[in-house]
Write the structure tokens for this entry.
Amino acid sequence: MNVSEAVERRVSIRAFRPDPVPGALVREILERAAKAPSGGNLQPWRVYALAGAPLAELKRRVAANPFGEPPEYDVYPPNLWDPFRTRRFQNGEDLYATIGIPREDKPARLRQLAKNGEFFGAPAGIFFCLDRKLGPPQWADLGMYMQTVMLLAVERGLDTCAQEYWARYPKTVGEVLGLPEELMLFSGMALGYRDEGAPINTLKAARDPFEAWGELRGF
């Protein structure tokens, strides 16, 4: 599989098979992803992978606190404006359409949202943290590391779903992971093998054409 094929296959998977992922394979992916670039080679990422009993304990705690906790950062800016608002709205409509949940069925939508706390059934969950004194450039570096993880996972026959949902549980995740005070939770990620028969996995989020966001000059 080449890079272009991995980019094309990578989508956010929201229904996984329970088949375990070998720890050696998870470590290989995380180690190889550390080739990702970072400004000044700061390598700001701090990564924790959970499976088995530790993952089950985290799920138990989250299920006991469905309303979450005060987040340490806003995933989206308040009063999101267009075109970003429309893109987010349409993505949500397309997602719930795959599983037949209309907008007015709020309880069903909340139940689907809560599946984030179960990593959508994935056998492994990964958390990405960084020193809270670092700034936006290092957040971008962490994002490049996460993207590299996702593409390497695809290469090895796995799938992922990046989950900023976990920003809602900084205290719980911090306690389960034993995070030192200087580390801030940025995102989680579900890792496993996709359920090929799950309708929700048919979603391939739309992308705007190049003309909507790009320019070529001097070519």
Q: What stands out?
A: The chain has one domain: 3-76+118-198. The two ends are 31 Å apart (CA to CA). The mean pLDDT is 96.
